[in-house]
Design brief:
Number of strands: 5
Largest sheet: 5 strands, parallel
Helix content: 40-55%
Number of domains: 1
Shape: globular
CATH class: Alpha Beta
Radius of gyration: 13 Å
Structural class: alpha/beta
CATH topology: Rossmann fold
Amino acid sequence: MRAAKKILVVDDEPTIRDVVVALLEDEGYAVVAAHTGLRALELLPLERPDLVIMDVMMPGLDGREVFRRMRESRNGHAPPVVMMSAAVGRDLIDPSVAAFLPKPFDLTHLLDTIERVLARQG
């Protein structure tokens, strides 16, 4: 039996974070959650997720800055990132993110996106 893929969910909105975490756990994923970009950066080397789902607009370090720091880190694990935002369009996101989801998003579309991105990872 293959180990469950681990996903880090980063969102400062507790309701959104909790819904995404519950959905992913119901689908059999191992899930770790962070409420700030700084906490996400702390968790990355400890948890080594297979995928990160991250909000763009967060206080302190926003999703774009977290993504930039992830890419610059040569020693850290750099999993694919799915960005999501209600306020920022795809055109303002680094083109190397694995996927972008506008908020509000359909939960089925979220799952499809996750499966597609993870399938590309092998």
